[in-house]
Amino acid sequence: MRRDIADIDSGREAEDQRPYLEEGRRLVESREKELGRKLTCCVVTFGCQMNARDSEKLLGVLLQMGFEDKGEDENADFVVYNTCTVRDHANQRVYGRLGTLHGYKRRNPDMKIALCGCMMQEEAVIEKIRKSYRFVDLLFGTHNLYTFPRLVCDMLQSNRMIISVWKQEKGIVEELPVSRKYPFKSGVNIMFGCNNFCSYCIVPYVRGRERSRNAKDIIREVERLASEGVKEVMLLGQNVNSYGNDLDGEMNFPSLLREVEKVDGIERIRFMSSHPKDLSDELIDVMAGSTKICRHLHLALQSGSDRILKAMNRHYTKEDYLLLTRKLREKIPDLALTTDIIVGFPGEELSDVEETIDVIRKAEFENAFTFIYSIRTGTPAAKMEQVDEKTAKKHFDMVLSEVQQSARNRAGRYEGEVMEALVEEVNEHDSSLLTGRLSNNTIVHFPGDPSLIGQILPIRLAECRGFYYVGKKV
Ligand code: SAM
Ligand code: SF4
Ligand code: F3S
Fold first, then answer.
1. Do 134 and 220 sit in the same domain of this protein?
2. pLDDT digits (tens, 9 = 90+) for 312-355
């Protein structure tokens, strides 16, 4: 019998997954004997840093079970798509790729396909996949990601589509195996979910309520990462500034940062995302006084119009936002400030867009992600009067050109100077070059040997080309 959405699992408490890791290993081994070769896997991530971190956990489980990471989905025996549903475009990308994957599966009928992540928390998506994508083997959601070992065991012993999606989050489960993409930098979840319910946003519905991880667990994880050679950590949460609000102790985000800063071996600290309504003076002071916290802050504006901000349920005004940016620029002059902007929110008029443009000019963003509003079913904004597509596109172009102007104005400020870069990879287009990242998140390309990857090195930023530098190791 096929299991249904929010199936029998929904009542279970967190359970130990280790026996399933063992069982999975035995199942993989016996299948490998039958085939006379290794079983391969591939985890594809859509969406944000939170999903990327989840994917590292999924891959960690699969490697521990004995799968080999194939890195691409075409010829893998087990493909996992970790999906995003923040805008409709994200969903369409998954459906498009599923079509291609179906072709691969026809060639290799033993291929197993799992879908997980935010899209799976929507009942309409599950229905659509049940009806139109019957070749998918396993569906599970964000709340029961940690039961992946058990689900893989079930899947390997079944020919039916397994659906295991919990409607609600449980507590936080620690200690899944993790396979990190980079040896020298890592994301660290500090909280899960979101309580803000911005009226356009589906995240609180698919990720559940805000849960902060225990500070001790976070610090232990950061210490372990440092002992494994990680130099840079990115603290992750939908609104890191409200970290600790649900914990009994005294710990808030600035105090957590102070603790992370004490960990030997960690040289750079980043975090994502910050909500302007909760960005405190204390946080600005901690950032200003820190030698490890990177000179980059991503602070989503969404709109510069008070009327639209109110309808978005953002809880700040244009002036509040500008005041924050002034304080930040004054106390941390070398800070790079980036943002998210939504254009075409219900009811938005030209005068609102002009307010947004005014903020872009005044805040002088180093960069901004600009999105056309996308209707998300079940959110309050979906029921509001929508802006027609043509107007939204026209407004989007206006905002985008302003963002590009601002980015151009801010780029190249450090030309000729020497700055430290964390060397991340060999340049994609020219293998004689390495690509590094400055504390302010700007990219620099420079000649060098791949053995330097993972090191933090002083680089002369010889020439600014558009939004990146070409430099030389000093
Ligand atoms: N929690 C983060 C914050 O508030 O800064 C944002 C997380 S969300 C995954 C990333 C961005 O997607 C948001 O800042 C917003 O600009 C954009 N976004 C969210 N819902 C959207 C929608 N329905 N249409 C268009 N863009 C949207
Ligand atoms: Fe979405 Fe708002 Fe939560 Fe960010 S803070 S995830 S935009 S509801
Ligand atoms: Fe997308 Fe989920 Fe992140 S909807 S942006 S993957 S929290």
1. no
2. 999 999 999 999 999 999 999 999 999 999 999 999 999 999 99
Predicted confidence (pLDDT) per residue in 400-443, tens digit: 999 999 999 999 899 999 999 999 999 999 999 999 999 999 99
pTM, 2 dp: 0.94
Which of the listed residues 87, 194, 210, 239 should we mutate to test ligand 2's pocket, taking the one with most ligand atoms within 8 A of CB?
Answer: 194
Say which residues have a Cβ less than 8 Å from residue 321's Cβ, sequence separation at least 6: 276, 299, 301, 304, 359, 363
- The answer, yes or no, to whether any atom of ligand 3 lies below 6 A from the CB of 47, is yes
Angstrom distances, CA of residue 455 to CA of 222, 223, 422, 437, 473: 18, 18, 6, 11, 12
The residues, ordered by sequence, that sit 6+ positions from 245 with a Cβ below 8 Å of its Cβ are 210, 212, 252
- Claim to verify: residue 143 and residue 212 sit in the same structural domain: no
Q: Give the residue numbers spanning the domain of 142.
A: 10-164
Mutational test site, ligand 2, from 191, 195, 198, max ligand atoms within 8 Å of CB: 198
